[in-house]
Amino acid sequence: MESAQVVTALSALAQPTRLAIFRLLVVCGPEGMAAGQLAEKLQVSPANMSFHFKTLNHAGLIVNRQDGRFVYYAANFAAMNEMLAYLTENCCAGSGDGCDVPVGKCG
Amino acid sequence: MESAQVVTALSALAQPTRLAIFRLLVVCGPEGMAAGQLAEKLQVSPANMSFHFKTLNHAGLIVNRQDGRFVYYAANFAAMNEMLAYLTENCCAGSGDGCDVPVGKCG
DNA sequence: CAGTTATTTTAATAATTGTTTAATAATTTA
DNA sequence: TAAATTATTAAACAATTATTAAAATAACTG
Q1: Fewer CB near the terminus (10 Å): N or C of chain B?
Q2: Closest by CA position to A80, among listed A62, A94, A95
Q3: Is residue A95 part of a domain?
Q4: What's the total number of domains in chain B?
């Protein structure tokens, strides 16, 4: 994953409503949840939800599928994991699991 | 960790220069790196660096200590891990490690 | 103390972002 | 086909954010 993509993904999550949407979808699993149901649960207007869905979608963090007149949204777990991996890559120069190394790797 | 704090942390990282700063510091480990050295490595003006340090600091993602006339910045690994945990909390309703569950948890 | 190096602050400007309202699109039901 | 439901789009406005240049602060050196 490249820096620009990660910035886009982080920007998408750096907003209260979108973070709440994403977290609900992470809990839901691959089947996802209907747009209207999310809107009701989060007390957000449909138009505003659509705006935020678009942002999350563009960032690759969620996917959607139409089912009748409902649109189901689900978290993209692969994208999430890649983003998290990017942040922790080569943590403490790869020395030790919990980053408990007292000595740094930079001068 | 609360939603507002996580939003602040994600906002802080959702910017190319700050993401680059943070990643360098993650690799460096607890000892960190001097402000000027980071500025040179990333080809960013000192004033601009200070602005971004402030943002990352306010978000709790980095810490700093003075050493002579240098200021060393280091990643706050605890804060980073809390933020990552917040995103994956109750992933797929806690059923299975890799979120490979084909059936969702929401209706 | 004067000079140098390292970093931060301030002020100004340019660009991006979130919310609301109203209108539009797609799908189902009668 | 017409009405109802679900969701998206477009336009407008308010608010926030990033960058630059100049000035200020802090710490060391001779």
Answers
A1: C
A2: A62
A3: no
A4: 1
